[in-house]
Fold this sequence. Notes:
Number of helices: 13
Radius of gyration: 33 Å
Structural class: alpha+beta
Number of strands: 12
Shape: elongated
Strand order of the largest sheet: 4-5-10-7-9-8
Amino acid sequence: MKFINLFKIALKALRKNVFRTFLTMLGIIIGVASVITMLAIGQGSKDSIEGSISDLGSNLVMVLPGSSDKGGVSLGLGTSKPLDTKAVKDIAANCPSVKWVSPVSGDKAQLVAGSNNWLADVVGGNEDYVNIRSWKIHSGRNFTKVEERRAAKVCLLGKTVVEELFGTYSNPIGKTIRINYVPFKIIGLLEGKGADIMGDDQDDVVIAPFTTVQRRLLGSTKVQMIFASAYSNEVSETAKKEIEAILLKSLRVKKEDEVFSIATMEELTKTLTSASKTLVILLASIAAISLLVGGIGIMNIMYVTVKERTREVGLRMAVGAKGRDILLQFLTEATFISFVGGTIGVLLGMVAAMIFGEYVDDWEIVITPFSILLAFGCSFLVGVFFGWYPARKAANLIPIEALRYE
């Protein structure tokens, strides 16, 4: 029997019970739509996390005073051997895997421009800090080594700070703001980054020379952190080991003293990516259960259909139809139901994912060709797998007994 004839017979049989066919499809529609939606949400979450990590810095290596924990108990920040600028210079001179390095200090501070005021993060670093943090200068310029050495009162403003102090479409370069009553000249504006992985606004920041922040705002000589950037992600671990060796020598301490801790973006990326993958698998598993329920629905209805059409099967066999033809006929019906249901489910899932992304703030939705193919493939396999047993049962009917079936 030709496939086109099988398809026509299957379509005619399904048309006789349109409502029942739709209800059977409904399980597949919901299952496939769930797969598309869940994968779009999970993949969007994964991409958002990776993008946020990338925004933190280019192959970033962070050095913090003190050890983060020991035996599960937080020890806080160390104070016996604080980081200093000499350690920064030693890293720059002796770590071949490090491209940029900067001391970092800062705090929240009150900003005043004319009659407007705003509370924002003020961060001090050297001229390489913007490169390490992957900041792009929207307009103006970065401060220089000379300005950093002289503790010049110049600064770069983040997008949020500009909007709050001067308005959305203003260009305040060359103007002066007061940071904790100290006047700073604006020499550059930073491009927007948006929220970080913790939901904090990265654009709500002022960047100034490290020495200026130390002397004029904090009144401290301590280096709160050291940020470094490896030449590539592949050498981040090498850079970490080099920095650790230099700091142990520069600070004259032993590793077991845990005077400082070092973290790389690669470590953070692995941790968060692993968590996001777990989320994707969990969401896909939930969706797969819906698809499984839909498949069971197909098997149930096809089993009922075989019972209802036993005499028809017997008649077809009596006039020459083979068991293989009967098998393909019912298998075609099951596959058709799952294919049409899968198509509707894909469209419904895409719409649901887009609606979710529209109404849930700061949640990226990513619909990939892989997720669509996966959903289609699963719906097809569900149709074949769950349609096989009823179709096989129909193919194995004995013609004489089938004709006598009431």
